[in-house]
Specification:
single chain, 137 residues, GMP Synthetase, Chain A, domain 3, three-stranded mixed β-sheet
Length: 137
């Protein structure tokens, strides 16, 4: 975690509180996966740092209760990853379920638009004209 300590040292001398808070938030949110592990980070996502409290979104109440029991260990891991004094507590919030990307339904059959023409003679003329256009294109 040499990289994080260099960033902290660089920003410790900064007099601008806003930049310092942003960097602390980036460090805390970025260190979340390392502090809890890859599998747990998939179910509990660090969202933001409010003062010295890290807000973490969880899938449901069961995850919220289980992670609450592990909060002291999580805080120790975060402190080891980013240093002391940045994150003092962790808040677990239940997030609404993520909506997965959806695909448009595929048509099972490609209906010919000429089928909607009721008159058989006009339907034949339309198909022949369309076929000539596609051949010449």
């Amino acid at each position: 975690m040499d990289h994080a300590s260099r960033i902290l040292a660089k920003w410790a001398g900064s007099s601008e509180t806003g930049k310092e808070l942003v960097s602390h938030e980036r460090l805390a949110v970025g260190a979340w996966k390392k502090a809890v592990g890859k599998r747990l980070a998939e179910r509990a996502r660090a969202i933001k740092l409010v003062r010295d409290r890290l807000v973490v979104g969880v899938d449901d109440e069961i995850w919220q209760k289980n992670l609450w029991g592990l909060r002291n260990q999580i805080l120790k891991n975060l402190e080891a990853a980013i240093g002391p004094g940045i994150v003092a507590s962790v808040e677990f919030r239940i997030l609404p379920p993520k909506i997965e990307p959806q695909r448009a339904p595929l048509a099972l059959t490609h209906a010919d638009e000429a089928e909607h023409i009721k008159d058989p003679g006009l339907r034949r003329i339309y198909r022949n004209s369309r076929d000539r256009e596609t051949r010449s294109a």
